[in-house]
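Hi P.,

Sorry for the delay on this. The queue was packed all week, but I finally got your sequence through. Input first:
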Amino acid sequence: MEKTEDKESNVNLYKEIDYPYSSAKEVMLEVVEYIERRFKGPENEVLLETRFPYLSFQKEDLVVLASKPGIGKTNFVLSLISQLILDKQIPVALISPLISECEIGMRLVSINSDIHLAKIRCGMLGKEEVEKMQKIAGRLFEAPFYIYNEPNCSFKNIKKKAIEFAMEKHIQLFIVDNFEYLQELVDARENEYRTILTNLLREFRYLANELHIPIIITMNIPNLKSDLEPNLLDFKKYMVITEEADKVVFLHRERNKTGFVKQDAKLIVAKNTSGPTGDISVRFYSSTGKFTCTDF
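Then the structure:
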């Protein structure tokens, strides 16, 4: 009797899970369409190119950008956003659970005007700096950039906003800063954290596929005590992060040294399912938090 019930339970379980399948014909059509889009030119491009050499994103990529705390992930993201929205007029949306819209705005002005961020925050600007700031603010005013700032934001709200941005603003890149501060992870008990983390990463992958755009999530490397360059093994018990992501990129630089104006840093592409891995040299400017390619 028990065996019969078990069999019925298994049958019902399989009935509930309705995974789609594809024929060889459908798969080949998709492959041919992909190649044709690449062949026809930039307007049909499936890659989102950046000004950082060798750093580009497939349109359905889930990208993890990670670093030690305080290295500058948010500023790197804002430097990347600046390239896209100002140089290429590519629409981008940013979910920011920790940093206010006003602070993001000030950082963007500093990054693009080369005016010291502290001077912008304090309002201690000379006449030429005010004019420069106003000019940059005017460019940013017209830029296709959208910010959603909600502390302790849930995935449900993020998904709703992503779909809204995609449909109404036609965004081509969606970024979630400080991923570990999502409501589900903040409220998770220790024994369920890994499961919730896995589910969230998969949901973001599904969302990238659904919207046909790359999604970047930024996070701190958990419990990293070493001063060595980060690598995939630093995720330790959260290796599911590296398993679910299409790309894993580490931002690395030495800890701040007093007196430096600019500093060499690097992007470490540790995982890439659609291209090469390796290091990308970048430069960091301490007064503005700006990241550029080294030949800038």
